[in-house]
Amino acid sequence: MSLRIAIVVTHLLGVGHLTRAASLARALAARGHVAQIISGGQPATLLRIDGVELIQLPPLHVVGTAFSNLREEGGAPLRPETARRRIAIASKALEQLQPHVLVTELFPFGRRALGAEFQAILDAAQGLARPPLVLASVRDILARPAKQAKIDAAHALLRARYDGVLVHSDPAVVPLEASWPIADDLKPSLHYTGYVDDNRPAAPPPATAPTRAGIVVSGGGSAAALPLLHAALAAATSDPERRVWRLLVGHKVAEAAMTSLRHAAPANAIIERARPDFRDLLRRCAASVSQCGYNTALDILATGAPAVVVPFAEGGETEQAQRAALFAARGLVQNIALEEVTATTLLAAVSAAQASGGTSDHGVAVNGADCSAQLIERLAADRPAIASPGVTPLITAIAAALGPVKAALDHAGDAGRSVAFWHRDDDAVAPTPQLERLLELTRAHHAPLAIAAIPARATSELADRLAGEPHVAVLVHGLNHENLAPANAKKGEFSHGDPEELARRAGEGLARIHALFGAQTRPVFTPPWNRASPALTPRLAGAGFTGLSTFRRRPARFAAPGLAQVNAHIDPIAWRGDRSLVGPADLAEALCQAIAGFTAPAADPEPIGLLTHHLVHDARIDAFVAILLGLIAAHPAARMTAIDDALSQGAAAQ
């Protein structure tokens, strides 16, 4: 079966990501598939795209290592209209290609500054008549974010929207976990391909080959290697053997910098632009001096060149330093940090590299392009078996099931009504990956969130984490969240007992939540298991509460004098089943009924409450929450409201 594959990539500094994507696309094309690259970085002069369609978006780049400061072709900051145009071009390309497989290079592990663009592309792919298999594509070593929240957000995207990850590495050299703490449940979705070599691996020169001569210094495609190139000129000037030093300068380096290098060059140095016969030069050189980017490392392995690497490490970058250390530990290169480079140290490293004899027997898997193509074929053919617990087909099912909900909102809009929703999440006690996924979802859709925290168990770490989330309010979820109901009764902590004692304990819970969360606290009582004694309710106002929240439509706006009631109505968790997602059609029916009740003549305008429990969410539940929040955010007749607004509406009505 001939497949159609789209690879989306934006390279911002060097050309490594684009080169790897092109290698993968060429391997797919060579196997009879239609391969398309959607490229968002600057055009690369020496890119090989034989048999591959290239869709060029309005190009972006960065200055230095400021990857969040995206620049357009003329150097101006990325404008909203350019961002929209990039998305439109990519979406149209997907619509025309109708790919069987979509591959995103680096995202969601990186390119967070382009997160909205990649999400829009994923949305466009999901909206196709036949949504494609979705794979992430990453190199051997990733830049680990400083904040765990960013790692958790990437994992949430992988669970909700991806079918697998192509890891272009040899795990015997470096597994992904060496640089990225991949979650245990995602490890089965990793597929190691070996390193993706831009050229087919070549055998080392035969014994009768001419003697190697000269030093080749290369700096990749960008200006990031200029410090290394200047250091190489100093070494060439001091070289006692007066060897020829050939410096290859990337095509993205400005002509003024080239001129400066030429003026500083001694007679035994040649300054020229990067050449397509680079590997031939390496096969004949006495030693190679370079950084240690992904493709450069493979050039060294393929040609057997005695090599010195000076890894790029500006702006806190650690990728090349880790790779250089790993390769040096295997005896493949001489590794020297840029801050240690002088004419003397560089010449000594070159001598050590020559003495080592090069990398002719490296033992590293470098057949990653062909292996990736075969993996893609297998995954596409066996898609139902490899999709992350049904998530990808489930997204389609949820979107289809919520069609009647959209129709109900359309009807409300036609009648001039705006339907209010709110979101309550129960049982928070500490920061967790599940909580991070929930916060990411609500932030992405600008959706206020009311978190019902357990007072006796909530930690200061949770308070510190939520302090930076202005869209979050904190409610009082009982006291200890323990079942104190009689043996023959349904579970409840505040459903039975002396009402005065229940009110005292509820007040204690409010005091604890206020002490931890301060201004984020809302004096709203949310009894565990949504059950409160009728005798407690009129005493809650005296304990300091202004609101009560349970489950199902409230009987009245006020549960007692001074106590507004705002309930939740939709719970997506199958508590009596597998504790995963309730059937999407059942949830859609419940939502339609709630919308009808909200919009009925003289109806109680209680916002429709979504109730979640982040600690027990799986990818199916996360997918439902994401799609529902997206529908509400996008529909002109729907809005998410904060609990403050819901309570104030009740107070005004009184």
TrEMBL record:
Origin: domain of life: Bacteria
InterPro entries: CE4_u4-like, Glyco_hydro/deAcase_b/a-brl, Glyco_trans_28_C
Residue intervals passing through the bilayer: none
Residues in Glycosyl transferase family 28 C-terminal domain copies: 216-354
Protein name in the entry: Glycosyltransferase
Organism, scientific name: Camelimonas fluminis
Lineage: Bacteria, Pseudomonadati, Pseudomonadota, Alphaproteobacteria, Hyphomicrobiales
